[in-house]
Every structure is written in structure tokens, then in C-alpha cells.
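Q: Second attempt. The first request was missing the SMILES, so the protein and zinc ion are both included now.
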Amino acid sequence: MRFRFPFFIAFFLFAITLQANTYCPFCDSLVLERQAFYEDDLVYALYTHMPITEGHCLVIPKRHVANFEELNDQELQRIGQAIQKVDAAAKKVFSTGPYLLHQKNGKEVGQSVFHVHFHYVPRKIGQSSLMALLSKVLIAQLKGPISHQKMKEVTSKLKENIEK
Ligand SMILES: [Zn+2]
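A: Got both inputs this time. The predicted holo structure:
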């Protein structure tokens, strides 16, 4: 009998690589079920699993496209409206005021998930400088993901407070 084991290993590694290259968390129904607190026919709003500040949300199109320039007019309009709804809800739930919006296109500018997503990062009025906010980016990385329990608490509060 011929020894076929290496073929299985090769196939297994190939399958893993393929999955790693094609996996998109924003197209994963489990991620959406856990993190989304708003949706219409074109967009979702999610609470991020690694918040830079309390209230850090994401707005994404339902359609899987990597970059901003691939969005159509309707999606652009809905995303804008959803960001405003998220802002109003976040202000009620977290008593925040000022907020940072950011969105990256290309790995060279730090994009790591290649499905267009807008970050909504709120702060409380009078909270310290932009530098302090930037240091929170690192702290969020070090802290890692929030618990499922915390995610549930936050998303249910946002669901209750967001305009439908
Ligand atoms: Zn996707």
C-alpha cells in the first residue's frame, strides 16, 4: 500500500489557507447575531468586540465589498443615516458627545477586515486629548475581546434606544 498521509496534510493546509483568505467576520452569521443591534435591507450596525472606548460601534453594508469606492449611492445614503442613528443611540446609552469616525481602504493604511466598515468611536464631553484616545487603541488591543455577557448587555441597550 502506498503511503498517502502527506497528501492529506497538504490538502488540510491548503483548505486552512483558503479559509483564512476568504473568511469575513462581517459575513459570518454568528458574528452578526452576537454583535449587530440594528439592520435594514442594506446595512448593519454592530458593537465592536474590542472597543477603543465604551460605545465603539461599526456600520457596514450587508453586501461584501472591500472598499469605500465600491459602495453604491443607496448604500452610501443608508450608511450615513445609520451612523446618525448609532450616534443618537450611543449618546443616550453611554452619555457620550464628541465622536471620531474612521474608515480604512487598503492594508497600507491599516485595514485588516476587507469588508467596508465605519468605526464610530464616541467620547464623553471634556475627556482628554486625541493622543490619549490614540493610546486607547493600543490598550484595546492588549485587553482583547469583551465577554459575551458584556456584548449582550450593550447590544440590547443599543437595540432599545436606536431609531428603527
Ligand atoms: Zn464580508
